[in-house]
Fold this protein.
Amino acid sequence: LISQIPVYPEGWTTEDVLREAHSRLRAMAARLGESVHLARLSGDELILVACEAPQRGFHMTSETGTRLPVHASSQGKAILSAMPIYEAEALLRRRPLQVCTPHTVTAPEQLLAQLPAIRRGGYAEEHEEYRLGLKSVAAPIYEGDGPCRYAIGVICIAGTPAAEFASMRAAVMETAQNLSALLGHRAPGGI
């Protein structure tokens, strides 16, 4: 819960707090039984900067350093939704959007139309847009009053029951809010 967030000493950097995020990712992976990823926007793509997988059961694994397309991943959509619309549009129009699966949305207009709902809801989903047989949910992580460069997401098989996926969504949103608070972000009305 937000009230349980420790107050860190002045002078901590974003990287210090993100190192702290590893324990939260590990706990989420164990609790949900699914892989949890922390992605960072780098130019026109995402880079996975932290990946935690559960210790048992079937799960999707990725390695730190893996690059993901912004337009076809839930983490990318979460970050795009936090940008001013003109920045998101410029990013999406810089080069043709790669088709990853038959479900990948490659029309910038369609993606831009999704962003207000993602922003209002506080999370983004993708259903087999990046890889067939998989879906994911992610939420943006805000740094103080600065730009959103990070998102946390959970990836699971496409057939995951709706109730389980809703639990994953709630966990992702709560963890993103907690990490944003650690980074000094205060949502309108407080977090």
The chain has five helices and six strands.
